[in-house]
Each structure stands twice: as structure tokens, then as C-alpha cells.
Amino acid sequence: MAGKPCTDDVQNGRNGLDRRTFLKGAAGGAAVTTVAGCLGGGDDTISLGALYIFSGFGSLYGEEAERGYELAVEEINNDGGIDGQDVEIISRDTEGDPNAGIRQMTSLIEEENVDGLFGLDSSSVAQSIAPQVQEYQMPLMATHAATPFLTSPEGEHDNSVGNEWVFRNSNSLSHDMYGAAQVAATLELDEWATIGPDYAFGYETWDYFQAYCEGIGVDTAFTEEQFPALEESDYSPYISSILDAEPDGVITPLWGSDLTTFLGQAEQSGWFDEIEYTLFSVGMGTDLPADGSPLPEGELASTRYDPFEPDTEENNEFRETYVEEYDTLPTYNAEGAYRAVYLYRNAIEEAGTNADEIRSTFEESEHTGPVGEYAFAPETNQATVPAIWGEVSYDDEYESNVLDSLEVSDPSPEEMQQALEDAGSDLPTGV
């Protein structure tokens, strides 16, 4: 089947970038990204499906991912594509909702005939989709959703959904909380509390933080916990409950517009004068909107990718190319999406578009990207990439929050498993 004729007169991308071509499907919420190539699939095109949140409270993450995969597509197609075939990304909005996510995934596979899937911001969406891609035998490269249960093999725990078709190229909540526990060990605070979203991600963050703290011997107490609903507009009662408990430190996995709402109200409440340390486990995930509050300097935050670490030619080139293209530093969601497209490029160049061969290539190969060198762990398909914690500062050159005094946490799976066992926890590492 021949591809559809090319056209150069469609220039209405989401970000107004006239170097790219977008087609938005009115009914399916789809967008197609290609560069110097034909749209619509066919013999001259490799199609990949991107599943992210493009609307609502988490839309910032979809926008950042879109920048990353756009850049990858541009680079790959300008370099001759994949064995002479252009790459196109067909993106769909999961809305952060499991049912919408499954519906969009099904459409990408059955209607668009994509060669592979990547993305996912929400842990609940990821856990719902994982069994479905196993049924379809379709490779899925998760780039953001952090629940350890996504890569914990099915049967290991009641909530585990990991299978041979699901991979994750970023670190997980489990990695991140081991690093947070290491930070807590250095801070030596008497009491910790949490404020997180009222769904699995919020509860899992608190559970893993406590388990790893106990497992590595952090001498502390865990006190107040607050879990406001997603898209909460009034954080004052939750903030008051935390402040009344007078903890020394608070860990928070609030994200998206919920994080910006919380930050503004926390600042007004005197939070940062009363709480000695606040650990933001998602705070460096994306640019904060201009009308929100940036992370206060001196607080501690984590990231799954730092634009200045590692100091390699590949990372430095990616950072500067991204800055030149978008006038901002790349976030971890941008880097993860960028790297996912290259993972597919490398696999398809080696093995073709057969889904089982793509999956096997992911499993068996050593990989590299801006994040550094890594592989996928044999039993979980979880990438061996570290968690990074640091102190928030502001960089005038890049006009962005950055992390200083980085603590790179890269424990072995055995160390993580031992810590959970020492804590008496049945949580899976997912690594």
C-alpha cells in the first residue's frame, strides 16, 4: 500500500511550530507528527503511538513529552528516517483516566496500526493499560508513570501488572523513594509527614518512603498524612493539619497544576518558614506556569533526568539543541519521550517492525541516551537509571529552576529488596 500524498501547507501544530506538521482528529483527539515525510502510514512510514495527558490538570506533562518526541522525530527524519522510512507519532490524550487511556490505546492499535506505543503520565492509567498491551502483544515503553507495580511481574503482588510487553525507560517511584530515604538519613529529622494526591501514586509514595527509611535505618517517626483529591482548589485545611502536627520534614508527590496550586497557598500560609525541609518528589518534572509559584530555592527535589548530569557529549548536545529549539531546559518527561522514539528507531533498524522482535531487542541490548548508559532489567523490564535529588536553585542564564549539590542514588535491586525485607514490607521493588 502506498503512503498518502505529502502536503506542505498544514502548519497548525499545538505549539505553533511551523517546522512540523500536525493533523488533529476531531473525534479521536489524535495528532500526527512528522517531519519531511508523508502522513497517514503506509510503506514509507513507521508509526508510533504516544499516550499522554494533553488536557486538564496534568497537561503540562503532555506538552513537555510532545516537545521531546517532536525533536526526536525531526532529528531522525532529517537523518534519513529508519531504513529510509519516515517516523510519525500519532498522539492521543489519556485525560489521566484509565477508561480513556484504554480507549485511546485500542484505537491506536486497531485503527492506526501503530508499530509500538510509548508514554503514560498516570500510574492508574498505566496499570490499566499494561494487561491490554499483553493481550495485543504490542510493545509499550512507559516514560513517566512511576508506580513500581507497572514493572513488578504479575503475581508478585496483588497490584502487580508487569509483563514481557511493558518496559519503562525512566526510574520508578521505588527508585525515587530509596533516594528520598537516603536524603532523610542525612537530614536526621525527628518527624516526617506527607501531603499527596488521593490515589495510588500518593499512597505508594508515602508507603515506600516509610519502608525504605525503616529498611536503611533512618531513626525518625512518621506522623501526619493528608491526601487531597486531584484538582483540589483549596489546600488550606490540608496545610493547616500538617502545620498543626509540627513535623520537621514533609515529602510531597503533588504534581501538575495541583502542585502549583499547593505552592501558592503554602507560601501564603508560612509553610516554608515552619517546615524545616520539604521534599518534592515530582517538583522538577516540568516547567511551572508563569502564574504559579516556582519551587522555593533551598528546598529539596528529585528528578528522573537532570539536563546537566551526566556530563557527556550526548547529554550536552541534547540539552543545547533542546534549548535552541524551545528556549527552555528539557525536563525529564521531554527526555523520556525523546529517548523512547530513539529506542524504537534502534530496535526497528536492527529487527524490523515485528512486535516480538522489537520487544526482544529492547530486552537484549545495552542502551544509551541523554540520561546515560542503561539496560532493562531481565525480570522486570525496568531501566537501570538512577534517581537524582538535589537542592533547588534558580539559573538566570536558563531562566529555570535547577538542582545543585546532586545526590545520585543508584542502588542495586538486591540492596532495594533487602531494605524492604528489613522493614518487614511486602512491597515489590519493581526493579
TrEMBL record:
Alphabetical keyword list: Receptor, Signal
Location of the region described as Disordered in the Swiss-Prot/TrEMBL record: 408-431
Pfam family, one: Peripla_BP_6
Taxonomic superkingdom: Archaea
Domain Leucine-binding protein, first and last residues per copy: 45-392
Protein name stated in the entry: Extracellular ligand-binding receptor
